[in-house]
Amino acid sequence: MKWLITTKVEIDLQQLKQKLIEYNCTLDNDLDPIPLGNKEQVFEVAGPKDLPEIVAFDETILSVSPNAEIELWV
């Protein structure tokens, strides 16, 4: 399943990647985080459907939301 995770801007990227591996998630290395103001950022990840429950105790991940991709048909 595809997710959007929100973190603080100052999170160590290597630490985040290691945590995501532990949570059975993958971070798209080709995508830069999406800034949310000056204090937060959003990453696109692929992970298990119960990811919100898995990371509920992790204070470095502020929120987890489903990511819906829109396909345009021409």
Q: What descriptors fit this protein?
A:
5 strands, alpha+beta, single chain, five-stranded antiparallel β-sheet, 74 residues, 2 helices, 34% strand
Sheet with most strands: 5 strands, antiparallel
Share in helix: 10-25%
Please state the average pLDDT score: 90
Rg, alpha carbons = 12 Å
Classify the beta-strand content into a percent band: 25-35%
If helices are DSSP runs of H or I spanning 4 or more residues, what is the number of helices? 2
Distance between the termini: 26 Å
Shape assignment: globular
The assigned structural class equals: alpha+beta
- In N-to-C order, the SSE pattern is EHEEEHE
Low-confidence stretches: none
Number of strands: 5
Layout of helices and strands:
Blueprint lengths: L1 E7 L4 H10 L3 E2 L6 E3 L3 E7 L4 H4 L6 E6 L8
Antiparallel strand pairs: 1-4, 1-5, 2-4, 3-4
Would you kindly provide a written description of the structure presented here, covering whatever features stand out?
The chain is α+β, with helices and mostly antiparallel strands. The chain contains 2 helices and 5 strands. Strands 1, 2, 3, 4 and 5 form a 5-stranded antiparallel beta sheet that branches. The longest helix has 10 residues. The N and C termini lie far apart (26 Å).
In summary, what is this structure?
This protein is 19% helix and 34% strand. With 74 residues, it is an alpha+beta fold.
